[in-house]
């Protein structure tokens, strides 16, 4: 399986009309929307119609969406099949692969370690490496980089050097524990000079694998265990896990909408890539995480601000695209896309209004267009309510 998991603006896979709507912002103001949302019954119809339109236009195998305000579900819907060759319909409780949307969870995990005194914001890379892996060699070219630079994709680390087809294939067959594999990648990256200068945005999964490996070294625990103990468990995310969802759940679909057995090796990217995006969960649990990203408690307000705010002149924060303020959002909006080439997920948040929107599909061939279309429909329905 070729890895094409990447961050784009929500509108990247759709036409100019939706690009204007999502990236330039909805023309309608969200002022006064929430009282209407309290009447959930009345608000349901526009959302259902939007789901129908998005589904019919893109024709994915299945498409689902959900909207939250203040952590409460305002609308949810699902349409289509768990498998293109089957008859079982998807449900609102099904689990979905989130792809690169998991990067926000890895960044939030770093925030947890910061708040516990095990890490630091803007931690210089040489200091972090020495604390995580004493004695590991590091090329002098990395000396001016911070861990935050990697989470913002501005550290000069490029996927095409390290996350190659050969590396992906070999990673599936390696017997070593995942922390060992991640450390090996970090060792290879840091022994060589950076691929590019600091400060230039170049999206890459290797950035988050490196950050995940540093957290493993700093904590003495695998990233997977850290994610369970610091993110999933405290937030009550009981459906969350890694890899393709198992059991009576939707299957991902490859080229020509061929169902991919979740028990097969090719059902997801190699597990070593976990920190970059192999997480799945039900949408109710995803909403718990999104609410925690907009409401101080599990993390401090300072940590939330750091996670959701890009540097001046940039548009990627820590695990989130951050294109700036939008009228419908009442302030800055943040968003992300994720795909392992067999699933697709799109998330948009308006922290000032504590509004969150998610659209998911179990194929990437039509799912990108479907998720973007449904996202436009949901935001439009919210703005018109």
Walk me through this protein's architecture.
The chain is of the alpha+beta class and 385 residues long. It has helices at residues 16-24, 33-37, 40-58, 103-115, 125-132, 147-151, 159-162, 165-173, 178-191, 205-219, 223-235, 274-277, 283-294, 301-308, 367-384, and strands at 62-69, 72-80, 95-97, 241-242, 252-253, 259-260, 279-282, 321-326, 331-338, 344-350, 355-361. The chain has a 6-stranded antiparallel β-sheet with strand order 2-1-11-10-9-8, with helices on both faces. A 3-stranded antiparallel β-sheet has the order 3-7-4. A two-stranded antiparallel sheet has the order 5-6. A hairpin with a 2-residue loop joins strand 1 (62-69) and strand 2.
List keywords for this structure.
alpha+beta, 3-stranded antiparallel sheet, 11 strands
Summarize the structure.
By secondary structure, the chain is of the alpha+beta class. The protein is built from 15 helices and 11 strands.
Q: Which series of helices and strands comes N to C? A: HHHEEEHHHHHHHHEEEHEHHEEEEH
Number of strands: 11
- Beta percentage is 15-25%
The total of helices stands at 15
Distance between the first and last residues' Cα:
43 Å
Biggest pleated sheet: 6 strands, antiparallel
The side-by-side strand order for the widest beta sheet comes to 2-1-11-10-9-8
Percent helix range: 40-55%
Mean pLDDT: 91
Q: How would you describe the shape?
A: globular
In the predicted model, the low-confidence regions spanning at least 5 consecutive residues are 1-44
The structure class reads: alpha+beta
Give me the Rg, rounded.
20 Å
